[in-house]
Amino acid sequence: MKTILLLEDLPEIRAWLRKLVLEVFPGSHLSESARVHDAIELVKAVKFDLALIDLGLPDGSGVDVVTRLRDFQPDAQSVVVTIHDDDEHLFPALQAGAFGYILKEQARELITEQLQRISQGEPPLSPSIARRVMAYFSAKSKPQPAANAMPNVSLTDRESEVLLRVAKGYTLPEIGVQLGLSRHTIADYVKQIYRKLNVSSRAEAALEAQRLGLFR
Amino acid sequence: MHHRCVLALLLWLALLAGPAAAQTVVIQRALSAPGTGPDFPSAAPALEVALPDEWARTRPDFEGTLWYRISDVPLAAPNAGELMALYIERVCSNLEVFLNGQLVHGGGRMDEPVTDNCKHPQLVTLPAALVRPAANVLDIRVAGHRLASVGARQRAGGLSALRVGPLSDLAPHHARATALQVTVPQAVGATLLLMGGFMFVLGFINRRESHLAYFGALSVGWALTDTRLWLRDLPIGHAVTEFLFCVLLGFITWAAVQFLLRYAGVRRKWVDRLLPVQGALMPLSLLLAGPDRLHAVAVVWTAVLALEVAAAAAWHLHHERRQRGFWLMAGVLGAVTLAGLIEVGAQWTGTRPLAAQLPQLVVPVIFVLVGLRLVQQHGHALHESEQGRLQLERQVREATGEIERNYRQLAELRVEQVTERERKRIAADLHDDLGAKLLTIVHTSDSERISSLAREALEEMRLSVRGLTGKPVRLADALGDWRAEVVSRLAQAGIDGEWDAPEDLPQTLSARAYVQTTRILREATSNIIKHSGASVCSVTASIADGDFQVVVQDNGDGITNEIDHRLDRGHGLASMKNRAKQLQGQCLVESGAGYGTVIRLTVPLDRAIEGS
Q: Tens digit of pLDDT for each residue in B238-254?
């Protein structure tokens, strides 16, 4: 039995998502919330296995809840459920620790499948997000003069290879065939990429905070 | 050039003072006796004196009127009917001439204030009616001042040697002397006065060129020393006149010293303060000394003032030693110094040779020339400053233009930023309001068709928003996006997808072209999945003649008329063609029942960035 957080401000969509989640994870316990503030309160009180988080909410951004979950419940899987499909909106959430994203308007069956895959450790990764991640890591790999304290988070060659192929539009099964690896191994690479993105972003944020603190 | 002018003038003046005619008799001895009466004081003991008779030497303490008598004057005219005349080169201050007891000439007032004729040569015509055949007696009554009461020796009493001869011989002589001693100094003095006044005003207005004002004051002061040339009769006493002349020297020194310093760009507070103090001290000391000791005090003062001017000149030359005009100024100052030395020497010896008169002429001429040079410099500086001002104006205009241009660019940038922000706001609003409503319809509608329409509308909205705000998309990225979507959708539908496209293309597509192509491909994919019944679908992308081309081919049933009709109802093929047309591209559909379908889409590349 799973404990699931559902953060969505539109009542109809929330009801629809609730139904869908209960179908995919029968017997799970759902905590629902329509506001960032309430969701953070819930995160303080309840331990979650999975969190479905909308980004644009009346009192703020769902990214805050993603951050909060990562900090206090690292085992919980945050999944962004959003109407935005562009990386400008998605990338910050992924950096904050979200483990994949689901586009709301997709057909019920598609979402069901994606949820199942996510819960099995196979997060989705679009070419545009892959490109963004590549750009992020290649910018970081350049020599930085004052980056002594920066933890050396970089992608392995295999991870980079997978990322590059995703960016070119190959599907994960195709990449598996090309590299002579199983679909699950490829999915692991993707998960690893998400994790590194998050770790690196956190280190960066900490360093930035430290720098600001030093300069204050 | 100035020097040559001065030289020429000197030569000309020397020629003017040529030797007198041969028939003229020079009288160098006379009897003299003091007397206030209307006739030669026969009773008093007469003394024989040599002419010229400088009172400062022969009778230093005498003041008043003195009679001179020349007996047996040779007045026989060489030619009958010719007029005889008496020429007196210098008499100071005034005289009356009697021939055989008859007054034949008066120079003006003989009482205080005595008319000053010190600089005016006298020519006296001797009436033929009064001339006796022999033993003619010439009496000359001279009113003059003793040396102690005058500032300068040339204003002390005295009578020069006399010349008697035919008028025709003496008149040109007199004319030359008058020109040299009176007319030319008058002309130069008048010029100096006018120029000095002009320069004073000029310097007074332009405070930064204060040396002009001081030079103007110097010139005016110098010109005033020749007042006696114009005004032989002054309504003030002799003592006052002499006092004023001495005071004028202090003023001239003040102006000269300040001019020399300011012209060199030097300005000293203590000089500014001390000179006026001296200017006040000098008249005070003269007043305290009284008329009897005026000459002694004046000599001391003159020496002090001369030293001051010399010091100022040295200071000026030292300060300007590296400037361009140094030698010119040094020459001018040297000439003035030389003139001063000659003047001092002349006063000392008491003689009045031609050489002693020249300095008095040369100095004002030099002043006029220097004044002209200063005005020329001023004009030049004015011209340059005008040029500078014009240039500055031009620079200001250019800078203003630059600022305006920058401001316009900033304003444009600002408009762009505002527009961009507004676009983002509209996009966010669309997502939040319209998007939420469409989403609700998608997931709450019981009708599959309405739900699907709402989903399409949602996609449309999102693509439109992206088209509004989008930047050019690299073709390589676009192909990645399209491949991921098409291949995974086909795979989910169980159709074998084949994708053939060049990699790493540098060309770009406009955001709108990207969005529209995405829709067309999406539509095509949907049609294949829903209607074609195909098992294999191949997508081939290529670049040709600046156009981007995609060919989507399937092995399905092809499009029958019936299907075609149905598709068009859902804005299928027609909308694909429309979209291609909007991009100045085209979308061709080739199909036949049982032969599958080929869709050829051609889209122009983003020309602005293509190939960059």
A: 888 889 988 999 999 99
Provide the whole-model pTM.
Answer: 0.54
CB-based burial, B436-447: b 16+ in 10 Å, e otherwise: bebbbbbbeeee
Q: Is B519 exposed, middle or buried (0-12, 13-18, 19+ CB in 10 A)?
A: middle
What is the per-residue pLDDT for B277? 92
Per-residue pLDDT of B174-219, as tens digits, reads 999 898 888 999 999 999 999 999 999 999 998 888 899 999 999 9
Count CB neighbours of B324 within 10 A: 7
CB-based contact A83 B488, cutoff 8 Å? no
- Looking at the complex, report in whole angstroms how far the Cα of residue A51 sits from the nearest Cα belonging to chain B: 20
- Homologous superfamily assigned to B471-604: Histidine kinase-like ATPase, C-terminal domain (3.30.565.10)
Overall average pLDDT of the A44-57 stretch? 90
Beta-carbon separation of B436 and A174 below 8 A? no
What value does the mean pLDDT take over residues A40-53? 90
Check A169 against B431: CB less than 8 A apart: no
Q: Are residues A28 and A46 in the same domain?
A: yes
State mean pLDDT over B123-138.
88
**Domain count along chain A:** 2
Rounded CA-CA distance A1/A86 in Å is: 33
Do A78 and A145 share a domain, yes or no? no
**Among B435, B443, B487, beta carbon nearest to A169:** B487
Q: Residue ranges per domain, chain B? A: 471-604
- Chain B residues within 8 A of A169 when measuring between CB atoms: 479-484, 487, 499
Q: Are B166 and B121 in contact (CB under 8 A)?
A: no
